[in-house]
Amino acid sequence: MQHETLQILSEGGTLVGEPPITIQRTRELYEAMVIGRVYDRKCTAMQKQGRLATYAPFEGQEACQIGAVAPLNNDDWVVATYRDAAAMWFAGYPMVNLILGRTGDERGGNTPDGINVLPPSITVGGHMIHAVGTAWADKLQSSGRVSLTMFGDGATSEGDFHEAMNFAGVFATPTVFFCQNNGWAISLPFERQTAAASLVDKAVGYGMPGIKVDGNDLLAVVSATTQAVDAARAGEGPTFIEAMTYRVGPHTTADDPGRYRTEDLTTTWRDRDPIDRVRRYLEGNDAWDATWENDVADTASAKVEDAVAEAEALEPLSGKEIFSAMFAQPTQPLIDQQGMLARDS
Ligand SMILES: Cc1ncc(C[n+]2csc(CCOP(=O)(O)OP(=O)(O)O)c2C)c(N)n1
User: Which listed residue (247, 272, 277, 279) is catalytic?
Assistant: First the structure.
């Protein structure tokens, strides 16, 4: 099946469709994308300095991450992956927790009360089921809340994807399935992931609408997600969104993309940078200047550096404490392991 790819901003930054948000809101989202990029580059550098464990960069996917979350209410759920730090932060998950998580500190997984963002899922696909669960609970309670789940193209090959999509379709849960098709699942290209021409085709099989969108176009992502969120909130059930994008960096800091893809391909996508596109749009509407850009850069840098300083100032958990960071009631294997550590130290 052929699907149109929704685009609102051309690569040159001119409108080719109806903008879903004001210029002022676009400026706010631009700032959030810049903060995301500064965070991403900082974490990549920190990993090389030995200050973080493996890190999964998302450069190139900022329009997806900020645009998908932008239409949500404060109490909607966000259930995302290891690559979705910008989306999680923008939805209210503290940046300091995201950093702690990458140091292996379990306190990074403590979501503050009132923030409906689950900790990042490292298990590919497993979290989509949780987003159907939160949505179903909200439906039963008539809370009006919506659950957004974000995942990659690779996750669509997991059984969990089928179960989540099927249940959401049958029970008409208010879930938005947001797939960032960045072309690769580590080294596996899209053509080996599926024989389907397009992931959005899969929506049909689960009885839900699908939208294919230019994932490097902030306004198109906001428009698609707004449509899906509004439908979910109105009781019309789930939507599947396939956002076409690309990660310009490695899969994680432990990966060498030079072994499976050409630099030319990456250069093509660098030229479609989602932040540059919005900057051109703002410039064309007299809503951008160098002074403001410097302010945005300073704000981003301060925000990220503050979070890093806060994370690094925390006393590491003691050997005893790491066992109590996971469950309210420790499981027997954890109690046994804690006993073993106490004996050996
Ligand atoms: C259930 C499971 N299988 C395998 C892995 C190893 N793994 C980590 S990321 C990844 C690729 C995921 O690709 P995709 O879903 O497209 O997301 P992306 O990393 O591109 O954002 C794999 C296979 C895992 N974490 N969980």
Answer: 247
